[in-house]
Design brief:
TIM Barrel, alpha/beta, binds erythose-4-phosphate
Length: 214
Amino acid sequence: MKIFIDSADLGEIREANDMGAIDGVTTNPSLLAKAQVRRETAIEQICDIVDGPISAEVFGTTTETILEEGRALAKIHKNVVIKVPLIIDGLKAVRQLTAEGIQTNVTLCFSGNQALLAAKAGATFISPFVGRLDDLGEEGMELVEKICTIYRNYEFATNVLVASVRHPVHVLQAALIGADVCTLPLKVIHQLAMHPMTEKGLAKFLEDAKKIPS
Ligand code: E4P
């Protein structure tokens, strides 16, 4: 399973890249606002750090505005993936962007039927938001299972990108289900590396190292 970082913060992206942990990056308007950076500036700088798919989200909600923004963003770098909301105008734009050879990530997916339509439109990635479904008292990962089954049944090429990930159990479940990608905040990437037995074992080794005759 590929791991992307879900961030627009260059410091966080560099840290995850230095760990060798990431294969790509996802951004969204909220992450850009949090990092206080212009979308185009952020995308250019991220493309200089990470060599993999970099999702840049459109702000438009009509097919025409999505296409205009998507085409301009795709010119920034060959790795740019246009992130499009799962609305009817968005699906029309995805169909056209795909025909033009531009990669897309269909975002804000909350049902199997939405994922079916995104795949039929030719999306490169589909992003089911598991954490936001969990927040409603639903099992977010069940949606990932459904999408993987639908895509397997009909051999769709669209990659399942698990989004809105909140903790390491989401990552483990995504990998066990066989999702293609999981996008994580830096905090969760760090949590994946941590284990109390590793800390304890290291402390003991360092203590014993002092007792070795020189
Ligand atoms: C995915 O591409 C989104 O940027 C992200 O995962 C949304 O996560 P949130 O629900 O934590 O905002």
